[in-house]
Amino acid sequence: IDSSVDLLDEVELKGKGIKSVEIFGDKKSVTTWVEALDAIAETLYDRYPNFLEVLNNDDYLSKYIRKDNTGFVYCVEIQDTGYFINTNLNTHSKLRLIRAFGRAFNLTTGDLRAELKSSVAGGEDRL
Questions:
Q1: Angle at Cα 85 formed by Cα 102 and Cα 31, nearest 5°?
Q2: C-alpha triplet 65, 9, 127: angle, nearest 5°
Q3: Whose C-alpha in 4, 56, 126, 127 is 20 to 30 A from the C-alpha of 26?
Q4: What would the pLDDT profile of 28-80 be if each residue is shown by its tens digit?
Q5: DSSP string covering 43-100
Q6: How far from chain centre, in Å, is Cα 107?
Q7: Whole-prediction pTM
Q8: Measured between alpha carbons, how far is 18 from 22 in angstroms, rounded to an integer?
């Protein structure tokens, strides 16, 4: 089983844990999807000088990433920008947010990958 997935693909990862995220070939160890989302946002911020401008002009991203964190129950700040990502989301919504980053910054297959934790003992997910 390939435990590495391309985060820009439409994949269903509900209930899947994450071990690391690979952004433009640079692997970072993470333990949660929140950490992965934060690492992706911070890397994009470092790489694209127009990052904040793109965020503000993207209707989808600007719903979840704002200068004002009022109304966000849980959030993380993108470096020390004063911009906050709403992290009070389920895994599916976090993945939609990651894919929205992909669209906004014209990322391509292989730019954002994740290494998933292997399934619980027994292998099969019980329904």
A1: 80
A2: 95
A3: 56
A4: 999 999 999 999 999 999 999 999 999 999 999 999 999 989 889 999 999 99
A5: HHHHH-TTHHHHHHH-TTHHHHEES--TT-SSEEESTTSS-EEE--S-HHHHHHHHHH
A6: 13
A7: 0.89
A8: 11
The tokens describing 80, both together, are: 């020390």
**8 Å CB contact between 85 and 76:** yes
Q: What is the pLDDT of residue 120?
A: 52
Q: Give 68-120 pLDDT, tens digit per residue.
A: 898 899 999 999 999 999 999 999 999 999 999 999 999 999 999 999 997 65
Residues, the chain: 127
CA-CA distances (angstroms) from residue 69 to 14, 28, 54, 61, 101?
26, 26, 18, 14, 19
